[in-house]
Task: structure prediction
Amino acid sequence: EVQLVESGGGLVQPGRSLKLSCVASGFTFSNYGMNWIRQAPGKGLEWVAYISSGSSYIYYAETVKGRFTISRDNAKNTLYLQMTSLRSEDTALYYCASLARGYWGQGVMVTVSS
Amino acid sequence: DIVMTQSPFSLAVSEGEMVTINCKSSQSLLSSGNQKNYLAWYQQKPGQSPKLLIYYASTRQSGVPDRFIGSGSGTDFTLTISDVQAEDLADYYCLQHYSYPYTFGAGTKLELK
Result:
């Protein structure tokens, strides 16, 4: 059974940092590019970042470029999202996903508030 | 960036009806290399993660009922749900994965009349 399990979310003050993790199982994680996608409360889906299978190609949404860093450890089947200089508008449910395979995690909530 | 314009914003239907949801991209999503349209459709039920319904504009994901039909090419795409069932009530999103940054449509909420 395919599973993507996100963790690391929580309540954080504006300007602080947070690192999300996503552990994959049930498929060959190292073969696939991975994405972070977020959804603000009551809003639509927003693509955040992509990393290729071997980490050679990385892309970000303009809204997070320079503040967020996507990375992965294929030996640990884990995807990461390092978030810095957090803003209130970053408040959202963050999903990790293999869009090519249609695999999504259940999401982890990040709330940025003082 | 490619802008995805999805319509309508919401749709009220009765069970058994047919509905169509449209998505228009600001640039063509058709790859000249493999003639595939890089457009996907997702369904999201309350409290759940999005579920992939259709990829390459018209290919149904395994396990998706055949009442879900994707069509279109280039810049204009449609998701048709024939014989709507109560379990189909959800939010629907289109996604272009032709070029980065990937972009979603704003979503369509399918509700019971």
Summary: The mean pLDDT of chain A is 97.
